[in-house]
Amino acid sequence: MAQNQRPRSILESLGEEIVRIITPVSICMFMVVLLVSVLNSSSSSSSSASVSSIATIAYAETSTDSSWDKFLGALLNSLVFVAVVTVVTFVLVLLFYLRCTKFLKLYMGFSAFVVLGFMGGEIALFLIEDFSIPIDCITFMVVLFNFAAVGVLAVFMSKMAIIVTQGYLIVIGMLVAYWFTLLPEWTTWVLLVALALYDLAAVLLPVGPLRLLVELAISRDEDIPALVYEARPVTYNDSGPMDGVAQRKVWRDRRGEDLNDGSNSNSNTNYVFVDNVDSGSNTLSNSNAVLDSNSDSNTLVSGYNDASLVGAEEGRVPERDAELSVPLIDRRMIIQPQQQEDAVSSESLMLEGIGLGSSGAIKLGLGDFIFYSVLVGRAAMYDFMTVYACYLAIIAGLGVTLVLLALYRKALPALPVSIALGVLFYLLTRFLLEVFVVQCSLNLLMF
Amino acid sequence: METGSDTHPANPNPNPNLNILNNRNPSPSRNSVISGTSPVWPTIDGPLGLSEEDSLSYARRFYKFGFAMLPWLWAVNCFYFWPVLRHSRSFPHIYRYVVRSAVGFAVFTALLSSWALTFAIGGDRLFGSVWDQLVMYNLAERLGLTGWS
Q: Of A36, A269, A285, B148, which sees the most CB atoms within 10 A?
């Protein structure tokens, strides 16, 4: 009878979890590549020169400068941008420390509205102009307003269908990523590298703002009010009935982390279940209630079946394989607010970094979506060959990050590995592979 | 392991704490005993979604907010509570709001699409010079909306 309990091996469930995080990343990248190729092929590249933003405040790239000048200018731009982002992140940490959660949520709802409404509207206008779609302004305004308002509700204000929330998060990532691809070329690449380094520092250094934020959130067991994509947790179909939906703790207990898997899985498991038993009713009066009363709409609800069954596996597996036992049950993510170009910034909007909620679902910050898509979008501006290479590189980097997450079981930055591989593959493809492939094709040798 | 209702598949588990979970009886408003299947959840997310009490307040809230020119919110409401539409007898209160949302969405969409199609297909011939003033790409050009200010 025990065999009925485990319909899948841990490898299958692990694979499904990974697929559930790679799929949205791929969709976001694909949409950005689509947008880039549709909108940039129809209009000339002269429009990129008119984009002035906080990322080009120090140096506006023109096509007549020498490479070295462009590089220095890009470096300057990136430093300015990273400095702004650092300041903003520290402000966010301060606000979170002072428990201004309501303000943060309102601000982020507002930013989400701006991104969806204004940037979504602008991109829609680009498309309308390019394809001469005969839509009138009334319909357009109504549709746009609907789209933006429901997006804000889905992402921040209410509990909505998981797929709707995920869809809107992907759309937000896509819109911001498209915007970033409008920056000048050198600036974009140097900015990506600079942000990857910043992410590494901010998450792993003890003084890094993101690490402080995560530590604060863990100590209070609160959810960080920011944009994070959470993959749907893997459910097991033959789980027992649940009396109502249980609340869970946002962060898994820390004391489980320090000991090794084998000895501690059971206490981890028990902790999870104790929490569940306490939360018989669905009200916030649960003593283990996750969040404080302000964020009433943000109570995280998960099928405790999943946690219980995964936990049960966790209890059993260590006898066999202590290393592989609980790859996905761990802590959380890193955040990195990103500042947007306009004064109406959505700085605390995007998150980067990868981590795990206590239900075992993988969480990936929206900043990661954005910068992966920026890299691929930029690659698309050159040729599709670079797109394929960079896509594979980024997915490989994401896989490596997930493995590291399973190994180290703490919040990790998701940008560095993927961006490093992506940039490397872009350069290799552009300067080496393309020449090779083109010559082979011209001489009818291959391809 | 509960011995009462036999509606759930056997759920053996070495962990004793889990049995406390499984011993809970489903609430009487669920049709599980009658239908012989797992309890029906009001939301499309199933056990990951809302409970029944929360669902009522959410359905009501979405319905009321939809009146602020948000038919898409009504559509999302219907999508989210799709099981309610299918098993209307299990959730009488939620069903009322969801049905009204569906009706509202249908009416609004009919109106909006008829206007949009008339505008698109009729074009210049029907509206005359007003068409050029109303169409979006001209408006965007005139107001300079695509200048990435």
A: A269
- What ipTM does the predicted assembly reach? 0.73
- Cβ–Cβ of A125/B72 closer than 8 Å? no
Helix ranges (DSSP H) in A6-44? 10-42
- For B100-145, the pLDDT digits (tens) are 999 999 999 999 999 988 888 887 787 778 888 788 888 777 877 7
Q: Note whether B42 contacts A: Cβ–Cβ < 8 A.
A: no
pLDDT band at B34 (very low <50, low <70, confident <90, very high): very low
How, if at all, do strands A228-230 and A362-365 pair? Answer: antiparallel
Sign of CA dihedral A281, A282, A284, A289: positive
Question: Closest partner residue to B140 among A129, A134, A315, by Cβ?
Answer: A129
Residues of A tagged active-site? 199, 368
Q: What is the pLDDT of residues A392-446, one digit of tens each?
A: 999 999 999 988 988 888 888 999 999 999 999 999 999 999 889 889 989 988 7
Q: Say if CB A346 and CB A424 are below 8 A apart.
A: no
Residues 6 or more apart whose CB falls under 8 angstroms from that of A259 comprise none
Q: Which chain A residues have a beta carbon less than 8 Å from that of B122?
A: none
Q: What phi and psi, each to the nearest 5 degrees, are found at residue A52?
A: -120, 135
Test A273 with B21 for CB contact under 8 angstroms.
Answer: yes
β pairing state of A228-230 and A354-356: unpaired
Nearest residue on chain A to B108, alpha-carbon basis: A142
pLDDT at A257 over 70: no
Confidence grade of residue A372 (pLDDT, cut at 50, 70, 90): very high
Chain B contact set for A282 (CB, 8 A): 51, 53-54
Counting Cβ atoms within 10 Å, is residue B120 exposed (0-12), middle (13-18) or buried (19+)? middle
Side by side, the strands of the sheet bearing A228-230 are: A228-230, A362-365, A354-356
Neighbours of A197 (CB within 10 A): 17
Which of B45, B82, B142 best tests the A interface by mutation, with the highest count of A CBs <10 A? Answer: B45
Q: Which residues of B touch A235 (CB under 8 A)?
A: 46-48
Mean pLDDT of chain A: 73
CA distance linking residue B86 with residue B98, whole number of Å: 11
Residues A43-85 have pLDDT tens digits of: 554 444 446 666 676 676 666 778 888 888 889 989 999 999 9
d(CA A299, CA A235): 20
Contact A232 B48 (CB under 8 A): yes
Contact of B53 with chain A, judged by CB distance below 8 Å, is answered with yes
- Nearest CB among B39, B52, B79 relative to A161 is that of B79
The H or E element containing residue A238 is none
pTM to 2 decimal places: 0.73
